[in-house]
Amino acid sequence: MSVHESGEMYLEAILVLSKKNGFVRSIDVSEYLGYSKPSVSRAMGILRSGEYIVVDKDGAITLTESGQAIAEKIFERHTVLSKLLMKLGVSEETAAADACKMEHAISDESFLAIKRYTAELIQE
Fold first, then answer.
1. Domain 73-123 has CATH 1.10.60
2. Distance of CA 95 to the CA centre of its chain
3. CB 53 within 8 A of CB 67
4. Collapsing DSSP states into helix, strand and coil, what is residue 2?
5. pLDDT tens for residues 45-61?
6. CA-to-CA distance for 26 and 32, rounded, in angstroms?
């Protein structure tokens, strides 16, 4: 399960868009991330060859089991880190932007510790 940060961002975007719209195409990913169509097309090719996504004849993008697992992991990290930062008084916009940077670099061990701490903090 080794995907570069950019691949993780694409997978997370596909997950978010599929939850929101049910149907995801490359153009949707391009608009959501603000990336050029050629960049997204190249990334989709890499993710497809890595078997993280499947693209049907109509251009609908679906996460494979491994793609879904990575996307959910990154999405959870983003959510937990954003909530923690906002709980600490950071604005929602800044918390989301910082969480986006942190979610790709943090170790599993550190994230689990933050997740446990955040769960306790929110219960208070």
1. yes
2. 15
3. yes
4. coil
5. 999 999 999 999 999 99
6. 10
